[in-house]
Amino acid sequence: MSHNAYITDERIEADDGGPLADRTVAVKDNISTEGVRTTCGSAMLEEYVPPYDATVVERLTAAGATITGKTNMDEFGMGTTTETSAFGPTENPAAPGHVPGGSSGGSAAAVASGDADLALGTDTGGSVRCPAAFCGVVGIKPTYGLVSRYGLIAYANSLEQIGPIAPSVAEAAELLEVIAGPDDHDATTRDASEEGADTDYAAAADDDVTGMKIGIPTELVEGADEAVVETFWDAIDDLEAQGASYHEVDLPSAEHAVEAYYVIAMSEASSNLARFDGVRYGPSPDYEGNWNEEFAGVREEGFGEEVKRRVLLGTYALSAGYHDKYYKKAQDARAWVKADFDEALTEADVLASPTMPVPPMQMGESLDDPLTMYLADANTTPVNLANLPAISVPAGETDDGLPVGMQFVGPAFGEVDIIRAGSALA
Ligand code: GLN
Q1: Which of 136, 210, 310, 347 could form a disulfide with 403 if both were Cys (CB 3.0 to 4.6 A apart)?
Q2: pTM above 0.85, yes or no
Q3: Which residues form the pocket of ligand 1, taking CB atoms under 6 Å from any ligand atom?
């Protein structure tokens, strides 16, 4: 186990046989594992041992996969670098001295270093795609409702999905096949085949992009670093040489996506994290003072700075008098982003952009500047607002050898389209 990729390296053995029989899978530490500590990267849950398995964990073990342990992450999924973890940062195996991305940085690092064959991350605003891009591996954020969230400790329920991370598109698609599908424990899940979708994900990794129409939202390319843009266009040329065609499309709402995402994500987080009060969850206080002081003390000690910032901002955005000004406006922007994607996807099979506008930052570089960190989510957050599927695949490297990811976005339940596009590149 290397690069501080794991918080807990306890193995969970599988049932015999199944499609993942000889595979190991690392699981992000916000996904519940019965009898194995699940911390969400937070001191608040340092001692928390769930009494049940998340649905995805049940599906993994039923498919024969051995779980290698629980991976490091930004506290409660709040971050883009895995540096807000209470258990120390993870290092990027593909770019020493640099962050692995976040918040599922431990999962991507475990795959990139070969510690695990495959991994599960969660993506609320990019947390599967960003670390996949930064570590030079593949990550899929499924359509909202394709994968059960039962047993996932919530950060922002309306945005997040559990998704696979793997060295290749075919392996990520195989893992998706195992975890996808409706679940009685999660009423937001859907049966994709009933929505008319092709669910043969592994078979879709056939490298065949002949005749595929790729839309490129100019807004998601213009703001990116020069080295990233260069690598992006080289990869598009590669796809064109393989028979795909591309055209530019407009996503005018994209410039407001980060703002809308952070208002919604923080609002949901402020509500979800209320349960960490020392009574329901978190270490019990001694009850020597009054209740308000005890409860505040547990939260003061248990939460890190980024989590506190978000709980405070989210509480503010939802409070009487401000609700319409912030939360409702963000919901309107969310509807606008969805409509823009639907429009762009009428003329294109998939949309392509750099996954991240910047290459992996140096460790320690971005921690003091939350706003810059939030802006790095410009290309990933719109997809969560629109509930759509997206994949990040390695597009190449900068001249300094830093990995660059290519993101493909598809229509709702169009996982096969993004898998096909991605397989032609990596
Ligand atoms: N970086 C984004 C955030 O901090 C996304 C996190 C995620 O997808 N969990 O909210």
Answers
A1: 136
A2: yes
A3: 77-80, 103, 122-127, 155, 265, 377
